[in-house]
Amino acid sequence: MKILFLSAEAEPFVKIGGLADVAGALPNALQEIDPQTEVRLALPYHQVIKQQNLPLEPIAAYTIAHRDGVIPVQVYRLIQNDLTIYFISAEPITKAPTVYSEDPGFDGYKYTLFSLAALRLVEILRWNPDIIHANDWHASMSISYLVKERFPNSFFENTKALLTIHNLPYMGQGAQPSMIAFGIGEDVPSKTSLPDWAKGVPLPMAIAAADKLNTVSKTYAKEMLTPEFGCGLEQVLQSRATDLTGIINGIDMKLWNPRTDTEISQKFDRFTTEQKEDNKKFLLAELGLKYSPNTPLLAIISRLEYQKGIDQAIHALRELDQDFYFIGLGTGNHQIEALMTDYQNQNYEKARALIKYDGKLARQLYAAADFVLMPSLYEPCGITQMIAMRYGAVPIVSQTGGLGDTVIPYLHHKGTGFLAQRNNPQEFKAVIQKAIQTYHNKSEWLRIQRNGMSADFSWLNAAQKYQEYYQTLLLKE
Ligand code: GLC
Fold first, then answer.
1. What is the pLDDT averaged over residues 162-180?
2. Which amino acid residue places its CA nearest to atom 12 of ligand 1?
3. Is the CB of 166 within 6 Å of ligand 1?
4. In angstroms, what is the span from residue 429 Cα to ligand 1's centroid?
5. Contact 18, 9 (CB under 8 A)
6. Which residues lie below 8 Å from residue 382, measured CB to CB, with a gap of 6+?
7. Phi, psi (5° rounding) for residue 309?
8. For residue 476, is pLDDT > 80?
9. Predicted TM-score of the model (pTM)
């Protein structure tokens, strides 16, 4: 089976959010569990990747037709751990200073070019994929292109399209003029009809055109069908419900392992969780906070977006009367950054807001934290909670999407974390209170930590499910 996997981001080359973790791990896991499967990953050759001076091999140069003239494209290849990675380079992609910009029209242009260029590439190489596996709106135009070009005796005659939705609200609005200029108009074959506002929007178009769809947890696959979560596409998704499934993401259990993590001050495993306390002392000292025993460290490690409910977490912290430390790490929306910074400044003896993206610090924080807070308003999967459990940091999360599918509520010795009703700041606060009480019961606390540290979140489980799903795509209709 041959699969072309398209994503805007992938570890270790470029990461903004969880999509990078998935695209950085799943292709390898798919090849690992089945030597008959060949995955090739297509990524935009972003400026941040170019700056890394990777040992790349130029393999193709061609042009993509645009209404205003042709656009030259170059493709570079890297083979890493048996995985072929294609970096798609063109001026709009490499000149852009950031992966995503504030200009929807420009991003629409850039990612339409990326999507079309990736498909043209495999045509030029005569490497005929059985499946185009497109992720999120940035790669959705590849599906529109595929279904347009797929006719009897064409190169793509037998190629199927799978769309994975990691984040439904991000649909690529603003891309329509570029899509039209690249020749993708309203004549794209579709399996269902779209509301007027969604015609010409990349993600809905791909939802309507793909052979199969999935999202990154079972619960979110159901939530998406409701007006509360469906972002106006609930009826479209309902009409495609038989072609929609949920497959929970994994984490890279080797990359995220407190027993071998070289970035943390004191390595540990589930039998030596007391070592976490050394990591906590170390980090508090690094940040100029005075250590006092039996005081839990609450952490947020997140993109600072409204989706993540950070404002609700800060609100809860303000109202708590128990002793705790708080460390927040991440960047994003400036208002949320300011909110977290204000909280730090008003509580400087116990709180820090670290407004940056820092992989090493993230690891140190997972290793040091007693709790990780995730009051997300919606969460297709969520990766932080899985990493947290692996590092003995107990998640306190809202009951939504992948959070509810990965965190088992604590009750009498069993369970791995604490769950609160979503979008309910009062309940979130009450659940933190209860969690802190449990923290003070040392034997129970140890159990919860160990339960989480023993859980298997490896990618191989997910890869197995994708394999099975791919098979259903290849069945003759
Ligand atoms: C998006 C979702 C997140 C998910 C990630 C990877 O960032 O918001 O829930 O874990 O994609 O699938």
1. 97
2. 166
3. yes
4. 24
5. no
6. 18, 374, 376, 397, 401, 402, 403, 406
7. 65, 25
8. no
9. 0.94
